[in-house]
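Quick one, T. Sequence first:
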Amino acid sequence: MVLSSSFSHAEPNKNDADWPSFGGQESGGQFSAATAIDASNVQNLVRAWSVETGDIVDASPYDGGTSFQATSILWNKHLYICTPLNRVLALDAQTGAQRWAFDAHEHISEEMPRIAGNCRGVAIAADEGTETSKKPCAARIYRGDVFGNFFAIDAKTGSLCPDFGAGGIINVNDFDNKGRTGLFLTSPPAIYDNLVILGSGVGDNMFANADDGIVRALDSRTGKLVWEFNPIPPELSDRTGGANVWSMLSVDNENGLVFLPTSSPSVDPYGGVRKVDIPYANAVVALDAKTGEVVWHQQLVRHDLFDYDLPSQPILSDLSINGETVPVVIQITKMGFVFTFNRMTGEPIFPLKEIAVPASDVPGEFAAPTQRIPTTPEPSSRQTVSREDIWALTPIDQASCLSQFDELRNEGIFTPPSIQGTLQIPSALGGGNWGGASYDASRNLLIVKTQNLASIIRLVPADPNEERELGSPIEFLQKPLNETPYRLDEEFFMSSWGVPCTPPPWGELVAIDLSKGTQAWKSPLGSIPFGPFHLSEEWGSPNVGGPMMTAGGLIFVGAGMDNSFRAIDVTTGQQLWQDNELPAPVNSVPMTYEIDGEQFVVVTAGGNALLGTDLSDKIVAYRIGEKKGWFNLLLEWLGVD
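Structure tokens:
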């Protein structure tokens, strides 16, 4: 796309096999047209190179443990990736050799501690002909951090771009965000024309009056504010906040639209301070990318009390239905539902129906009496659990599960939080989550990574005027909900042995034929370490991260709690290849690209401190190696180099 300013986003056409943004393209989808690796040769996949970034803290998340969740992007035969300790690296895409490293802490206040923070990726925008240009900052890498700093970095040198903001930096907390929690940046921005469009993270369970989740478009050269969209109604801005976009935005360049997956208003589990409709919360919102004006919106959860924010990048594509091609936006959810709308009008592709849902029994609260759900496809994750469903390894831990179960309120999906304690399924982790889904338009096939876990949520009466501290043990989370009459105690629904009480599989890949709205296949995903053992792979695993699909007919995915990376046949769900010897789980989204006719697949095998997995700082690239003879296979089995 040629622009009047000569500033253009480095996005390929649909036939290219590059990966210039988090989801492969600004339209999302986590799909590549690359075909060099396919079912006929994937068994010959070997490690091409690996890099250790040095950015790792092996500790619990509350002690600063790292989670390496980033997906690399490709530009001009270089990979660009952010690390959990606030650096950006440029690597040679064929060899992994480091070209430069940008350290944010060399450019921000010395008072800012070097703490571990999630970073899911960076974004790039480039002038026409930048590959051969020597002009400074003709191509710019954009990266945000947990302090709200937003950097513009020269893609060729790693230096800050001095004409952007204040010497290459803008802090989003310098804007009026109408709350008291502060914003942070963990996901890459979207690029449209000469605009860089930012969502943000909000500490929405700290204070009721969290910062509003304002989406802002900045001039991509100067950083000047062009427009902003606030999902919180003005009359509620001093009482609630959030409804932010912490995940990835999508851009329809052809039609000039940007799509937002918005989150819950603050605080998530108690809505007594926000008894007015907030239609742009928990919604797919389509904005005019030039002006920020709302074109259409669809709210997917009313008066959210469940932390069922929209967790993943909307997928913009075309869908073939009964011989007709329709432009669509596909949104997965934490509830396990998949919503599909006409991209131009917002009309549902599959009918939605109203269902009655349980009422709240918490003083000062109410719950929406009905919710809308799609009639098809069927949910990709479990949404109910009965006493007969309770699962355990032994009678001892089954008894502990049943004892907990019998004390809880449990009336199916959308059962609201209670003082008694509520069994929530899916949990606030999903269902679907930020790793999202992968979509192949040629097959009308959506691959959803999902999980079947429950949690226990309990509102505890507290002094609304007392400022409460955040609890620390991951097994039992305390969320303060300041400025409300309650705090939230939350834990996973686990046995005394630390195993989910819900029946397996706990993690799955689900293939959905969107032209029919039916599931094509399901396959368990991952395994759980349990002492020195791994529980059965048929039971799957809780998961963080997501799948990537290629035109070669393969799905590449890690996501589980085991240290494995897999290639799966897209038509059957059968596993075709696996690397079981990574230092930590692949809790990220893989990416792929072709250079000089050779295809590479790249992942971050860093694990996740929040899940208590092994941790690492490793980036690994794979390619097709020479076919191994029996003698080389024997040496490999014996561990001989």
